[in-house]
Amino acid sequence: MSFSPEWEDLYATGAHxxxxxxxxxxxxxxxxxxxxxxxxxxxxxxIGCGVGANIPLVQxxxxxxxxxxxxxxxxxxxxxxxxxxxxxxQADFCEDIxxxxxxxxxxxxxxxxxxxxxxxxxxxDMLEKRLALGGVYVGIHWFSTDCDDFKHGEPTxxxxxxxxYTSGDFxxxxxxxxxxxxxxxxxxxxxxxxxxxxx
Length: 199
Known about the structure:
By secondary structure, the chain is an alpha/beta fold. The chain is 28% helix and 22% strand. It is globular and about 50 Å long.
């Protein structure tokens, strides 16, 4: 299993209940996927959708939202707000993505980066197969090996992954994957990379 069960506990306590997308995500989507310029509604898949922070954006540009998360609490929060206006599936997206696609846009905000390397590779392989011709993956908040937190936490069997943080932003989130440029280029070797910024 790749999914960190700690996320269910966090959502159940009301943590990580963001309800609006990050501005950098909006900017990348509008610049590179341009879903608002499509003649037909964009088919959108978000992995690790949490409580649905990106749904208002997808609804604004007229897209059809499909979300995958392994937290029952997070998905129930979305259902209470959006009902049948969105499609949801509870699953570990490093093991299974229940939606077949094809998708014009895949959104990933700091979701894959909370998994082991092997799980990330499996998920990206599944996502690549589900992208429509000309489809775009937009991922933000991959954590860098240059980050001080990479030096802290408990090592795991995966040299890129740490866990067990007792202070800082990663307390209670389970495993955290840190990448360098070479690692990301390996992950996305089957994709055409349009932009990769180290923030």
